[in-house]
TrEMBL record:
EC number(s) on file: 4.1.99.1
EC class: lyase
Family: Belongs to the beta-eliminating lyase family.
Protein name: Tryptophanase
A GO molecular-function annotation: tryptophanase activity
Signal peptide: none
Domain Aromatic amino acid beta-eliminating lyase/threonine aldolase: 48-424
Length: 466
C-alpha cells in the first residue's frame, strides 16, 4: 500500500517553532491532563493531529483578505462576499453565518426538531447528535454495514443504506422525520465518502416522502475528490462541478469553514427554503450575532470567502488527500491495523484490533492515544466509546463497533518528515502493544460531549514504552 508523498503545491513563508519534550515531561503533562489528550496544553505537543478543524495554514491570499474585512455590525460588505462565495460554489440561496459548524447545527436543530422526532443519518457525529438529542430527537444510524468494518475496502462506505432508511420511515412515519442528516465525508467512519449515485438514491426516496436532506459539508470538497477518483462518469469533471452537483441534491447544509475552507474560525448554514432561512436568522441573533456576521469578524468572513475558492483548486485537494494517503500507507505497510480505504482527512487506527486484551469499558482508543503521546509527543484524537458517550435513555456507555484513534492531518501544515515521525511512533507503539496491560477509568465524566473535558486514571500502571 506504499504511497509516495505528494509534492506540496505551496512553499513555506512563515514558520512556528515546535518544542520537543522529554518522556518525563510528557508523563507529567499527561497526568496533569487526567490522561485526556483533549486537555493537553498545545505547547506540550510536538505534532498535533488532534483535529483538522481550524488548525490549517491560511494562504497569503487569505491573510491579505483579512485586511479587507468590514467590521460593521450590520450589513458588512464582507458578509456579502461570503454569501456570494457560498452561492457560487455550494448553490444555497440563503446563507446564515455562524462562528463554526456547531453553531449551524444548533440553529438547524432548534428550527426543525421537536420532541419525539427521529433523525436518520450516515453515522453519528458527536456535536451533531448532541444538538439533535438536546432538542428532543433520536438519532438513527442508516449507514451501510461496510462502514462499521475497518478492513472493508468498499470505495463509498459512507453511503446510506436505502433499505434501512425505508424501514425507519415505515416504522416512525415520514412526518416524524424532520430531515436526513447526511455527512460527506463521514468523520466517525474514518473519513469515508458518499457516492453521487448513493446521494441520488437518497434524494429520490426522501423527495417521495417530503423529507429534507441536510448535508454536513465540512469536508464535501474531499468527498468530491473521491467521487472524481472512484466513481465512473465523474473523472473528467472538475472538483467545483462535482461539489455543486452534490449540493444540488440537498435542501441545505451546515458548514464548518474550519475544514475545507482553510479558515481558523467560521461557518455557515445554507438553505433553500426562505421560511426556514427566516427562522434561522431570528435565532442566529440570539445565539451567534446579527445575521450579517453571525459570530464572525468581517476579516474572518473575508478569509472564508477566499478559502472557499482555494478549496476546489485541484493541486490543493490532491496534495491534501495525498498526505493522508502517505501516512496511511506507511502504517499499513508496517502491519498497523487501520480503517480502509484511507479517508480524506485522517488515518484512523483500529485500537480494538491493537489492544484486544483490554475490555471496551477500559477505553482502548483513549488508552492508545495516551501511550502514543507518551512515546513521541504526537497528539491524536479518540474516536470510540468515550466519544460515543452514554445512551440518554439507559445511561449506559455506548460501545460503537469502531474503536479508533484518529490521526488527523491539518491542511498545509506538516511536511513529510513530520508525518514520518508520526508513523515511526505509531509503528513502535504497535510493536510494543502487548506491554499495554491496563486501560483507563473515569475520575470525572461530563454529561455532554464528555470526551472534551473528562479525566481518567489508569486501571493499573501504563508502562512508558522504551
Amino acid at each position: 500500500m506504499s504511497v509516495p508523498h505528494p509534492v506540496e503545491p505551496w512553499r513555506i513563508k512563515m514558520v512556528e517553532p515546535l518544542r520537543p519534550t522529554t518522556r518525563a515531561e510528557r508523563g507529567d503533562a499527561l497526568r496533569a491532563a487526567g490522561y485526556n489528550i483533549s486537555l493537553l496544553r498545545s505547547e506540550d505537543v510536538l505534532i498535533d493531529l488532534y483535529t483538522d478543524s481550524g488548525t490549517n495554514a491560511m494562504s497569503d491570499r487569505q491573510w491579505s483578505a483579512l485586511l479587507a474585512g468590514d467590521e460593521a455590525y450590520a450589513g458588512a460588505r464582507s458578509f456579502y462576499r461570503l454569501r456570494d462565495a457560498v452561492r457560487a460554489y455550494y448553490g444555497y440561496e440563503h446563507v446564515i453565518p455562524v462562528h463554526q459548524g456547531r453553531g449551524a447545527e444548533n440553529l438547524l436543530s432548534r428550527c426543525l426538531i421537536r420532541p419525539g422526532d427521529h433523525v436518520p443519518g450516515n453515522m453519528y457525529f458527536t456535536t451533531t447528535r448532541a444538538h439533535q438529542e438536546l432538542n428532543g430527537g433520536t438519532f438513527h444510524d442508516v449507514i451501510r454495514d461496510e462502514a462499521h468494518d475497518p478492513s472493508c475496502e468498499h470505495p463509498f462506505k459512507g453511503d446510506v443504506d436505502i433499505a434501512k432508511l425505508e424501514r425507519l420511515i415505515a416504522d416512525v412515519g415520514a412526518d416524524r422525520i424532520p430531515y436526513l442528516s447526511l455527512a460527506a465525508t463521514v468523520n466517525m467512519a474514518g473519513g469515508q465518502p458518499i457516492s453521487m449515485a448513493g446521494l441520488a438514491a437518497v434524494r429520490d426516496l426522501t423527495r417521495r416522502h417530503g423529507i429534507p436532506v441536510i448535508l454536513d459539508a465540512a469536508r464535501a470538497v474531499e468527498n468530491a475528490w473521491f467521487i472524481k477518483q472512484r466513481e465512473p462518469g465523474w473523472g473528467d469533471r472538475t472538483i467545483a462541478d462535482i461539489l455543486r452537483a452534490m449540493c444540488d441534491l440537498t435542501d441545505g447544509a451546515t458548514m464548518s469553514a474550519k475544514k475545507d475552507s482553510y479558515a481558523n474560525i467560521g461557518g455557515w448554514l445554507g438553505v433553500r427554503d426562505p421560511e426556514l432561512a427566516e427562522r434561522a436568522r431570528e435565532l442566529v441573533v440570539l445565539y451567534e450575532g446579527l445575521h450579517t456576521y453571525g459570530g464572525m469578524a468581517g476579516r474572518d468572513m473575508e478569509a472564508v470567502a477566499r478559502g472557499i475558492a482555494e478549496s476546489v483548486e485541484e493541486p490543493n485537494i490532491r496534495a491534501r488527500v495525498g498526505q493522508v494517503a502517505y501516512l496511511g500507507g506507511r502504517l499499513a505497510d508496517a502491519g498497523v491495523p487501520i480503517v480502509r480505504p484511507v479517508g480524506g482527512h485522517a488515518v484512523c487506527v483500529d485500537a480494538a484490533a491493537i489492544l484486544p486484551h483490554l475490555p471496551r469499558a477500559e477505553f482502548p482508543a483513549q488508552t492508545l492515544a495516551a501511550v502514543l503521546y507518551l512515546d513521541s509527543g504526537v497528539r491524536a484524537a479518540e474516536r470510540g466509546a468515550v466519544s460515543a458517550g452514554r445512551d440518554p435513555a439507559t445511561g449506559r456507555d455506548r460501545f460503537p463497533r469502531l474503536e479508533l484513534v484518529r490521526l488527523t492531518v491539518p491542511r498545509r501544515v506538516y511536511t513529510q518528515s513530520h508525518l514520518d515521525l508520526v508513523a515511526d511512533s505509531m509503528i513502535r507503539v504497535h510493536e510494543h502493544r502487548t506491554e499495554i496491560t491496563a486501560g483507563l477509568a473515569f475520575t470525572h465524566e461530563p454529561s455532554t460531549l464528555r470526551f472534551f473535558q473528562a479525566r481518567f486514571t489508569p486501571t493499573a500502571e501504563i508502562p512508558l514504552l522504551t
